[in-house]
Design a protein that fits this description.
α2 (45-55) packs across α12 (260-281) and α10 (223-235) runs parallel beside α12. The strands form two sheets. The protein has a ten-stranded mixed sheet, sandwiched between helices. Mean pLDDT is 93; it is low at 1-29. Helix content is 38%, strand content 17%. The protein is globular. It is an alpha/beta fold. α9 links the parallel β5 (186-188) and β6 (202-206). The protein has helices spanning 2-27, 45-55, 82-91, 112-118, 134-138, 149-157, 170-173, 177-182, 191-194, 223-235, 250-256, 260-281, 340-351; strands spanning 34-40, 66-71, 122-130, 163-167, 186-188, 202-206, 242-248, 287-292, 296-297, 319-320, 324-329, 337-339. The chain has one domain (31-351): Alkaline Phosphatase, subunit A (3-Layer(aba) Sandwich), CATH 3.40.720.
Length: 354
Amino acid sequence: MKKLTKALCCCLALCFVLTFAFTLAGCNTSPVKNLIYIIGDGMGFNHIENTKLYMEVDQLNFEQFYAGEVTTHCADSDITDSAASATALATGKKTNLDYVGLDPDGKKLKNIMEISKSYGKRTAIVTTDVIGGATPASFSAHAESRDDTVDIIKSQASGKVDLLVGKWSSAYAYSNKKHFDEKGFAYTESVDELKTMQSGKIVGNIQNVDSIYNPSADNPTSLKTLVEYALDYLTKDNKKGFTLMVEGAYIDKHSHEQDIMSMIYAMMDLNDAIDYILEWVSKRDDTAIIFTADHETCGLQKAENKDALDDDLYTADYHTSANVPLYLYNITTDQTLFDNTELFHLAKKIVKNR
């Protein structure tokens, strides 16, 4: 009996040691805690296809992560605008045209940045648009209209985004800068100075943000450059994780102008930023990516070949109700057709480490 008891004790002790060892090993694992939410504003399937024709490639790197299609209608229209669609992506709720971070009744909706901050994560928005543009505003502010610039700025200054970087705008440079000063934000208009700023709350109202492929751009600062900086900022002395929203805005803006070559340059600029992100995440296992569009712009058709790329491929003068593509990295799902509100719930699971 004593021998049996001794053997049992030894067995229990061994189990405890093994359990403790496994627990320690579990402590060394890296759960997915970082989210990168990428939005190609106005990017439909054919914006990508025509870019590949111009670049003479069969596939862009991000296409290997294709996960399905996304519907984009808003609460009061089958054809959305960027404010309503970005609000859906950021909050999981449908709203009306022009509304920024509000439901159809004007009630504030909690966005993914605010949720991230409640979990102690660092937050950032990087865009080729002005910081108060409809998409970045919907991830960082609450306002009755995308045109309510002062309300958006005040909301951003009091909000939960640590780093706001975008194309220079006079609205952020002069009288309204005080709202950020009062909330302790550092401010710069120089990308070189921005790169030296490694902590605290920051507004980067950057001169000459443009595609490096645009032949008329004067010493442009690319989206890739801004993303490189943002990832360094977000990860420095940070163990709790981060949420980053990246927007390539000029796919939409140049499509509205029915300027296919400028659109392609903007698409290539976004692709460079995504290539950098994919290389960055390949060296770690703690980051997930959601990449989609807020809507399709101007009914772009696919050219038969590179020589046929022409502005006449645009068949509409505004957004359309066409589904847009979705790409997921480090997120597993059997679903292939999503509503844009559902992407918020994927994002929220990452933010909550679940």
